[in-house]
Amino acid sequence: MLAAVVPMITLVVLIGGALALFGLAALDGPVQVALVLSCAVAALVVLRNGHRWEELQASGQRALSSVTSAIFILLAVGALIGAWNMSGTISTLVYYGLLVLAPGWYYAASALICGIVAMSIGSSWTTAGTIGVGLVGIATLLGVSPAITAGAVISGAYLGDKLSPLSEPTVLTAQMVEVDLYAHIRRQAWTSVQAFVIAFVLFLGLGLWFGPDRVPTVGEDVELARLGEIFWINPVNLLPLLLLVVLSVRTAPASLALLAAALFAGVLGTFTQPGVVAAFVDRPGLDPVRTGVIAVWDAVATGFTMNSGLADVDRLLSRGGMASMLLTLWIIIGAVTFGTILEEFGLISRLVVPMVAAAKSTGRLFLTVFVCAFGLNVVAGDQYIALVLPARVFRVEFARRGLAPTNLSRLAADSGTVTSPLVPWNSCGAFMAAVLGVPTLAYLPFCFFNIASPVLSVGYGITGFRIEKAAPAPEQTG
């Protein structure tokens, strides 16, 4: 037990110290160092327990292999943000958004829009990295809170992610608990719909109460005019977004769909925004073909930058590039490696098994699943570990107690999936902070859906509401 606890204590002390000393800037390097040092302590504990260094190396390789897809999605999102800023796609979304969205219902509308998009394409990450970026940008120019908007974006994105049959975490949860996918989605709706209604009402209240009183730093008419002067604002600029939606609905791999939408936007921008492209490259006398190639390459690699004379506009559009995701990748690699070592060498199981034995009632069992899943999001840094391990550990216990597996699939999703963006060093929390440009701890209090979902799910277990029964599994002997 002591060997299992030491790496956990190390992680808590180092990350807590980093946040205390550096504040939100801790995510720019100090937290990453804390994760790497925690990996080293976990490795020493494993070696002391009699394992060989070669086994640790193999575990680390499996950890990196498990996040290969996430790494390429992150790089593709960085490329997409840079290319969409240069091509006018983000500017067009912002321009039209400023025309039609009012502060009073802006937060609620943002949550609803992201919920619909995420349900259509089955990806919270893609939704946040595209529509979410535009909505947070509009919030900045509209004079409402980017942090509350980010909370609304994440709330909507995770509602759609949970209820979409195209979502990887949703499919994985159903497979791990061995329930029908659509049965799992229907049971998730019992908590997800209620949680989103709560979130929607709160966002509407915040918008009506605070939104109209916010005064933009510059006039909206000035911002709109400036965007219209710099970019050719036209629905044609939204074609990259349409391409991404089509590819996502046709279940193309996420990283390939994002890269295709990024490259298409870059090429489109060389024709629709020649002045912007020429100013970005800033090489007078260069022919248009070479200028376009350099612009697309640079926007995809290191992001797009511009100087419009309006600070808010420049902050909105001077972003993106694969390079902007490197700090986030550093967090993910450290967190997932730490979590994999703890899982594969039995340190997590040593802590979880006594918790299962102590959960005598159904309510305490539900609470234990939540603590386990959320705790894994904190210590393992990856939502997939937070889904897979509780599903493996608690599936037999739910069957032994005569609880239908759909109870566990709903609870695991409510506890593991939706809480992952609330942890700054979790892969989901790091991703959301990177693409939305809002620190995790700043948007966390406003992720109403992500907070309400596990509360409702655990509440069901305590009260017995919506708890489905099954024939108890026979006790295994021998």
UniProtKB/TrEMBL annotation:
Q: How does it sit in the membrane?
A: Multi-pass membrane protein
Chief subcellular location: membrane
Compartment(s) of residence: Cell membrane
Q: Which GO terms describe its cellular component?
A: plasma membrane
Any GO MF annotation of the entry: antiporter activity
What parts of the sequence cross the membrane? 6-26, 33-51, 63-81, 93-119, 131-159, 189-210, 230-249, 256-281, 327-353, 365-386, 430-452
Which Pfam families does the protein's record reference?
Answer: Na_H_antiporter (PF03553)
Keyword tags? Antiport, Cell membrane, Membrane, Transmembrane, Transmembrane helix, Transport
Residue ranges annotated for the Na+/H+ antiporter NhaC-like C-terminal domain, each copy included: 156-465
Q: Which residues form a coiled coil?
A: none
Q: Which domain of life is it from?
A: Bacteria
Under the heading PANTHER family, the entry gives: MALATE-2H(+)/NA(+)-LACTATE ANTIPORTER (PTHR33451), MALATE-2H(+)_NA(+)-LACTATE ANTIPORTER (PTHR33451:SF3)
Query: Per the similarity annotation, which family is this?
Result: Belongs to the NhaC Na(+)/H(+) (TC 2.A.35) antiporter family.
Q: What is this protein called?
A: Transporter, NhaC family
